Amino acid sequence: MARMRSLGSVPCGRLLGVDRKQLAGAPKGAHAPERTFVIDWSISTPAIIRKCRRPKVEQPYDVKPSLRGSIMTSWVRAMMLAAWSASAVGAASFATLFTLANLAFGIYEVAEGHTKVAELPGVVVGGATTFVLALLFSFAITVPVSLVMGACAYPFLNTIRAVDHWAFGIVGFVVGTLIWLGLSSTGPAGNLYFGSWISVFVIGGLAGCAGGLAFSRQLRRGQAERDRAF
């Protein structure tokens, strides 16, 4: 066995070097002499453990089935949350625009003497009803759009994870604007809620922005949960 020469009495240390001077002049075929190891006992055991510990290597997503299932669950949850947020914000914007426009028209009618002030609260009730109806019907738009966008973006998961949070909001704003612009082209011309640029940005744009931000927020939350679990 190799003979070890210590520099202290503490039972831990690290290898400094090997004395090979005795090996230099040994004849060919002769048995190798004993090797001398010099150990520095000044280093602590935790330091040795830290130095010898293997670095943590991030596993690819396709290695662990449980991790892959967690990613899919988080992705679907992000799509559903994006659809819900877009519907809620879009319905709220639509109801707010509806209420303000009809309230302004009602006040004008009261000033002209064509209607009574007591009829104005009915405009607010109509706005609340509009919000509920718009929220229900908006899922017919937001859910398919979220599913299609999520399915198209899933192959680029690693790239998407590095994108800034607000970039999702900008992309969502553009997508929502284009969708509402397409819907307004089929509606009556000059209609405030479907045929005007105000509705395109206030309803479609804000709804898409809310959906994109919700999607990004859920992705980051899911990533944090996987980091703690795996």
**Helical element count?**
7
Tell me the major beta sheet: 3 strands, mixed
Helix content: 55-70%
Order of SSEs: EEHEHHHHHH
Low-confidence stretches: 1-23, 32-41, 43-53, 57-63
What oligomeric assembly is this protein in?
Answer: single chain
Sheet/helix structural class? mainly alpha
Beta-strand share of residues? 5-15%
Average residue pLDDT: 75
- Euclidean distance between termini CA atoms: 43 Å
What general outline do the C-alpha atoms trace?
elongated
What's the alpha carbon Rg, rounded to whole Å?
34 Å
Strand order, largest beta sheet: 1-3-2
Count of β-strands:
3
Structure description:
There is one protein chain. The N terminus is likely disordered. The chain contains seven helices and three strands; from the N terminus they run E-E-H-E-H-H-H-H-H-H. It is 67% helix and 7% strand. A three-stranded mixed beta sheet has the order 1-3-2, with no helix packed on it. It is mainly alpha-helical.
Summarize the structure.
The chain is mainly alpha-helical and 230 residues long. It has 7 helices and 3 strands.
Question: How do the helices and strands line up, and which of them pair or pack?
Answer:
Layout: E1 3-6, E2 14-19, H1 21-24, E3 36-40, H2 45-52, H3 65-112, H4 121-153, H5 157-161, H6 165-186, H7 197-229
Parallel strand pairs: 1-3
Antiparallel strand pairs: 2-3
Helix pairs in contact: 3-4, 3-7, 6-7
Keywords:
single chain; 230 residues; mainly alpha; three-stranded mixed sheet; 7 helices; 3 strands; 67% helix
